[in-house]
Amino acid sequence: MKETTALVASLSLLEKAALLSGANTWQTRAIERAGIPAVWMADGPHGVRRQVGSADHLGINGSEPATCFPTAATVAGSWDDELAEEIGTALGREASSQGVGVLLGPGLNIKRSPLGGRSFEYFSEDPELSGRLAAAYVRGIQSEGVAATPKHFAVNSQELRRMVSDSVIDERTLREIYLTAFEIVVREASPWGIMSSYNLVNGAYAHENAHLLIDILRQEWGFSGAVVSDWGGSNDAVAAAAAGGTIEMPSPGFDSVRQIVAAVESGELSEADVDARAAEVIDLVRRVTAHPRASVDLDAHHALARRAAAESAVLLRNDDALLPLAGGTSVGLIGAFATVPRYQGAGSSLVNATRVPTLVDAVGASTLKLEGVAEGFRRDGIRDDELHREAVALACRAEVVVLALGLPEIAESEGLDRSTLQLPAEQVRLLREVRAANPRTVVVLSAGGVVETPWAEDAAALLHAYLGGQAGAEAIADVLTGAVEPGGRLAETMPLRLADTPTAGAFPSAGRTAEYREGPFVGYRYYETAEVPVAFPFGFGLGYTTFSYSELVADAEGVEVTVTNTGDRDGSDVAQLYVSRLGASGVTRPVRELKGYAKVRLAAGESRRLRIPFGPRTFRYFDAAANAWQVEAGEYEVAVGSHVRDLPVRATITREGATVSASVDLPAALPTTRVDDSTFAAMLGRALPDAAWGTGPLAENDPMDRLATAKSPLARAGFRLLDSRRRKAEAAGKPDLNILFLLNGPFRVISKMSGGLATRRLTAAVLTLVNGQTIRGLGRVIAAYFGGRRDEKATKKAFDAAATKRSI
Question: Active-site residue numbers?
Answer without folding.
Answer: 230
